[in-house]
């Protein structure tokens, strides 16, 4: 209990007195003496400041120990926290994009727990190469001669241009000069790679003659960019990959095709819009294809470069390759993810990205009807909860015009104390934060990505009895 009289800072317990309590002994075993001491001092400083400001009571030894424990618990929480993604964006860049398959998670854990033959050839006992763990798989799945992996697709484009077009021109259609997240623009990446941008055509129309007119002694590569995060429609003309490959071949200049999202199978079999696959890009004549690992491919963050063996050899000799390489944990997860593509008939069952994108609307709606009463009970009479149809997005710049019919829970505020921003903050403050979106005067929880319903119901209990201020 707080002391009453005399009220003096002399009554505040010392650090040593708090450290000698049974509560502090338990905390010391969990967090260590230095961290505990710092936490106690911080609580004592706050108690002094509060006393001087309000001339109120002072906490006793047990209260200081308890508050220090709460401070340490808060500080021990990971910054990178799991969340429930109910935004309706499946591959949400700010929420980590693709959820890894169980096989990828298990492979990554295995690589973390023991030494691994990362750059060691077990058969010969000599030094190996880390790309070997995924090279054969990538070639098998794409039809390419050779392959390498770096830490993301922007790095793949950067490394490719620096290796093949440094100090030379990279020819690209003006309508393909994309900007990706956080204002990273293709021209800026090209400049950092040391390539000179040679724009051809116009924003909406580029013709084969535009490329042939631009080719010359200073040409390093022709770069074709799949505009995976936007579409230009109407009076438009572009040059197909096969036609562009013929132009590049005749000029003796490599064609680099940046596919971005990285599709390895025809998505139309899962009811999605068809995107060009990496195999199709190779078959069309691209000398190199770059693509991502954590978008539609459904794996960990990575960038792949596949294509001609001689060009990959040049890329492999670039000193930048070492700076952009991936570690054993990610390589293990990549290998396990790629192996799932050997069995496309079970891909939707085993790969979370494909499973969530292909999830039927009727199944999601049934889940919403089952959860609505629980959320209504937890929130009380300040809010109305109703099942609502909605549209999910693929996300991460993939299939920008494609939305998926989905269902969720629309939560409307009823009068005083029903602010949606405050409600959204309450959901984010749960032990496992719930991230939705405010849309059309309601907090919308799109359930497309909710698979662990039991865990979700468990955190909902934290909402009860916690009305907004």
Brief digest:
This protein is an alpha/beta fold and 469 residues long. It has 19 helices and 17 strands. The protein has helices at 15-19, 22-31, 33-54, 61-76, 102-113, 132-142, 153-164, 186-192, 208-214, 241-251, 278-283, 309-316, 320-323, 328-340, 347-350, 352-357, 361-379, 420-428, 453-460, and strands spanning 84-85, 120-121, 126-127, 146-150, 169-173, 179-180, 184-185, 196-200, 219-225, 255-260, 288-292, 303-307, 383-395, 398-413, 434-435, 437-439, 442-446.
Order of strands in the sheet with most strands: 4-12-11-10-9-5-8
Distance between the termini: 26 Å
Largest sheet: 7 strands, mixed
Could you list the spans in which at least 5 consecutive residues all have pLDDT below 50? 1-5
CATH superfamily of the largest domain: Type I PLP-dependent aspartate aminotransferase-like (Major domain)
Walk me through this protein's architecture:
- This protein has helices at 15-19, 22-31, 33-54, 61-76, 102-113, 132-142, 153-164, 186-192, 208-214, 241-251, 278-283, 309-316, 320-323, 328-340, 347-350, 352-357, 361-379, 420-428, 453-460; strands spanning 84-85, 120-121, 126-127, 146-150, 169-173, 179-180, 184-185, 196-200, 219-225, 255-260, 288-292, 303-307, 383-395, 398-413, 434-435, 437-439, 442-446.
- The two termini are 26 Å apart.
- The protein has a 7-stranded mixed sheet, with helices on both faces. Strands 13-14-17-16 form a 4-stranded antiparallel sheet.
- Helix 2 (22-31) packs parallel to helix 4 (61-76).
- The longest helix has 22 residues, at 33-54.
- The chain is of the alpha/beta class and 469 residues long.
- It has 3 domains: 9-76, no CATH class; 84-93 and 357-463, Aspartate Aminotransferase, domain 1 (Alpha-Beta Complex); 102-350, Type I PLP-dependent aspartate aminotransferase-like (Major domain) (Aspartate Aminotransferase, domain 2).
